[in-house]
Design brief:
Jelly Rolls; alpha+beta; 209 residues; globular; 3 helices
Length: 209
Amino acid sequence: GDSDPLGLDDADGLIRATQIDTPDGWPDLASYLADLKVALEAQHAFNRHPIGQSLRHGSQTPVDLRRVDDPVIKAFFSAIDGPIRRYLAALGTGSDPVRRRNNGDYRFAGCWSIRLQSGGFHEAHIHSKGWLSSACYIDLPPAVDRGGQEGWIGFGVPPFNLESPLQPLKVEKPEPGKLVLFPSCMWHGTLPFDDNHPRLTIAFDLIPA
């Protein structure tokens, strides 16, 4: 009879969005994102989505971005360090499965880039190897600004046929440079979009250090 037995319906407390920092060597965030877009495009070796992943009509980088020897991509990890640590500080500690593991520090369990083409989306999924997961928006199609939530990310709706369909706990609009952090165990997916301009993102999973 408990409506929230795990304490994970706290969408505003668990799902937080912020801008990444401008890394050293760039005058502003827009300049850095432009260079990062070029660097990421060079890593997308395929045109089709990989087997067994949630994305449809797009591609995923085949190599973990932490292993890529490119100064622009390496700078991404300094650009997100501050936002991640501010998220952990705001998250705090508690008895739920997410907060009770928060020791204020983190390490990566994986990092990759996704490039969705027109009609592309992510089926609702979780990240079984992570504690916290992310969506960081690098370059976006104009469709995200049409007012119909095309290409937006939604949380809390599982990929099952239910008698009473669930509404998302929260929906986030993508914006260039926006980093969304959330529990890896939370269902999340993106809505399809109709636009010739690709949707380029970076995702990563974190675990407690």
